[in-house]
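User:
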Amino acid sequence: QVQLVESGGGSVQAGGSLRLACAASGYSVSVSYSVSYMGWFRQAPGKEREGVAIIYTGSGITWYADSVKGRFTISQDNAKNTVYLQMNSLNPEDTAMYYCAADFPPYRMSPIQYLRVGGNGMDYWGKGTLVTISS
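Assistant: Predicted structure:
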């Protein structure tokens, strides 16, 4: 069975960095028959869930929300079957529960669309890891 487990959340000061990990099990993020869009999404208290970044695991192509471009980097480690989110220059607006998600063919929409709708419709989700940025 497919399972996604996030880790790496915590509390850091503004301007700091944090690296989140999404460990996938039950499938491979790299083999041809199980490649997927994998993404990071976040939800702050009182706000709708929003897209952060997506990676196509078959090629490594990435997409980012405008709010995190230049600060966050999504990547994958095929040997560890894990997707990461490196977050730099963090600010209090980045405080949120961060979720990892995966979508398999047939894809319901494009990665850019998934970012716009906060990942709604993606097939599998982790339980989230909390990121808190203090000023």
